[in-house]
Amino acid sequence: MSETPSGELAAGSSPLSFDLTGRPWIGVLRCDGVQEEMSLRTVFAEAAKVRRLVGDLPTQEFALLRLLLAIAHDALDGPGDIDHWADLWDDEECFAPVDAYLTEHRHRLDLLDVKAPFFQVAGLRTGKGEVASLNRIVADVPNGEPFFTSRMPGVDHLGFAEAARWVVHAQAFDTSGIKSGAEGDARVKGGKVYPLGVGWSGNLGGVFAEGHTLRETLLLNMVAADTNGLRFDSEDRPAWRRDPDGPGVLDGRQPSGVRDLYTWQSRRLRLHFDDNGVHGVVLGYGDPLGAHNLHTREPMTAWRRSPAQEKKRGEPLVYLPREHDPARAAWRGLASLISGRTESSQGAEAAPFLRPGVLEWVSRLATEGVLERGFLIRTRVIGAVYGTQQSVIDEIADDRLALGVVLLHDRDRTYGTQAIDAVADAEGAVTALGDLATDLARATGAESDGPRATARAQGFGALDGSYRAWIAALAAAQDPYLAREEWKEQVRRTVELLGAQLLGAAGEAAWTGRIVPAKQGPQWLNSALAEVWFRARLTKTLGTPQAGAATAGGDAAPPSDDLTPKVPA
Description:
Blueprint: E1 2-3, E2 9-10, E3 26-30, E4 35-38, H1 40-45, E5 50-53, H2 58-76, H3 82-90, H4 97-104, E6 130-131, H5 160-173, E7 179-180, E8 192-193, E9 206-210, H6 214-220, H7 258-262, E10 267-274, E11 277-285, E12 303-305, H8 307-313, E13 319-321, H9 334-338, E14 353-354, H10 357-367, E15 376-387, E16 392-404, H11 414-444, H12 449-474, H13 480-505, H14 507-512, E17 514-516, E18 523-525, H15 527-542
Antiparallel strand pairs: 1-6, 2-10, 3-4, 3-5, 7-8, 9-15, 10-11, 12-13, 12-14, 15-16, 17-18
């Protein structure tokens, strides 16, 4: 942290300009495979020719998409209902009004504007005039860990285009921790503001629907104002249509809708720069926003019920965002993505989880026939995992899962149910594989937690590509029940092969075995008995193998009718 040098320029005090509506700064991948940067104006004009956004990090892509969605919602003032949305979907020039909208608001969409720099506070300064390193907003440089990045030892300078992307990312995903206090902020104590949480999007297990082009992606995630379970106030508007922020905050302000929420000013920020680019930043806390029960406002995350928070708050019902686990593939949490709100509840009991509002919306499009049943989307999941009291980003979850919209159909749940049950098939089979690893370790007297975890990881890894291919093809299947039976046999073959490998590597000690404690008393456990139990568990999970189905055991002899292991001489 250093004091501001004399003669330095800062956002809100500069004759320079970087107009985000006309200057290239958003990374995109075009449908022809070319990667480039586009302005806001161009990205909407060329949306049908763009495959997707490309960020410096996946979380940056998520933040930029939300920015574009806020612009689209506001410029088109909608969609108001499903008919309005269908008209937009059918109109190749649906984003044409965005051009005039950007012209109208370009003075608020300038990164270096004198009075209202984009997503910043003009004149923001600390009591001592300190300016921090750009490491504070560039998330691929862990604060205090500069050796874990290609930007070693840190970020001294950014071009204006990249700086703009990181400003958007900071408002969405900035870390928590103690931050410098700005002059005029009543929360400052001793020159500092103590932890108030991460940027709003950092609380989410981000989810959105990807289409074949950026145009489709934007439209698929433009939830109509009449959507059940989501609230849109008439005064909903993005940050650039509100009065410019000062260093302080309005206590208790809540988002008025998605335009407000997608551009929520979680931070007070001011870039410092010269003619050649940005070289410093003042970064402090902005508008705090609690996550509990915002499921009626935030559509780009799944939600989970929290009995612990219900008890703590004394409230009958509390939902919190369902965060992602980077170690867990998206398909393993499929139920929380595609189960409808009614389906995931039990009678009068509130649902334990709610699927994301954007997928609730796609479900409505499928159910009402606006999208064909076989239309494929990629369900994209992106989220940040914070460590050390949320002061650093430890990991980023990024996954996608292709599926037909018929799986989201609310009136015909056959396909969706079979897809969810197929996940349970895989979970059960992998559990049986983990149990086999445990039994083989017990048979030798070895520690079992490590082998079990390794076996489970191998099992899910082996099934990952197979499940993704299976679910992508499920919508085209004439009989989803038959498709599920075929999936079970594929799971059986894969997991039996892995089991055979475990048995083959178990060694003589496992073949010999030893006495282990059991509920019915001491029992001799060896690899032969472990295999019998393994196959029984697979049968319980997947049913009896279909006639003629191949097994991973090949020509190996089946277990003896006498299943009692013999004590070796």
